Every structure is written in structure tokens, then in C-alpha cells.
Amino acid sequence: MRARKSLARSTARDLLKEMGLTEPPVDPVEIARNLGVRVVNVAPPDEDVSGFLIREDPDTGEPIIGVNKHHSALRRRFTVAHELGHFLLDHEGNWHVDDMMISFRDSKSSTGEHDQEVEANQFAAALLMPRTWLKSDFPEERFDLGDDRKLKQLAARYRVSTQAMTFRLVNLDLLS
User: Is there a contact between 100 and 52 (Cβ–Cβ < 8 Å)?
Assistant: First the structure.
């Protein structure tokens, strides 16, 4: 599993480099478009579903990422990045509709129960909040999680939720 997480992070780093991105915020929808993946806002029947990936639309042949239009803009950004992770890491879908394989992102996606979900989350975090960029935001000191103002500023700079930023800082061991 460790090798797969490393692959997820390196895939995100390589994609940022390929796209010529060097500072936040990263636009995952624009990246998807550049990769030929259509992103659509949808109202899924289950509010718990954040998004899904259809590898090949039967009508157009193009891949599609669907995002729950009722979720916040920040959550939708992370969902698009997460689904891009599934797409680029060649994850198999977990649900079939007719002959389409579909991967869903829901509340279970962040629990760490499924390896592919963990990998897609690793990819999304590395894409939206790259380690080197975060380290350059406070090079001489570690981040104080008690500094709510700075945490909100950092999250706003990267256009992620404070929760996503907190998880990323913890996972990168950048907290004091």
C-alpha cells in the first residue's frame, strides 16, 4: 500500500509539472479538461455521493467526472481532484450501470477502508496542496494549528477547506 500511496503522490507532482503549475490555487476542473475529461455538476439521488467517474461515456466515448452540485465549492474541487486520481491511477470502478464502470466518492471514501479511496485522496491532497508549496509558505517554522487565522488564510490560498488543510499539514508532519 505504501508504494501505491507514493505512486499517487508522484503522479500528482508529475501532473503539476506537466501542466506548468507552480503556485496555488490549482484548478482541478481545468486540469480535467486538459486531460480530455468532462466535468459535470449533477444532483445524485443519494446526497451522500460527492462524485463519480465514468471512464467512457457510451455516447461520446469520453471520460466524465460527475460532482454533486449541492456540495460546497471547496468540496467539489476536492472531489474533482479525487476522481482525477481514480482516472490517472487506473482504478477499477465499483459499480456497473449497463456496460459502464462507475466509481463513486461518498462519505466512506475518506475513512481509509478501501485502498483505492486512500490513494485517490492522497493524489487529490498532493495535487491541491503540494508538499513543496506548503513548505515554502512557512520555511523557517512549523505551522501552529492553534493559529486559526493563519490556517484559514492558508486554506483560502489553496482553495481547500480548513479540514482538508489540517489533514494535509498533519500528514506532512508540518505542525508544531
Answer: no
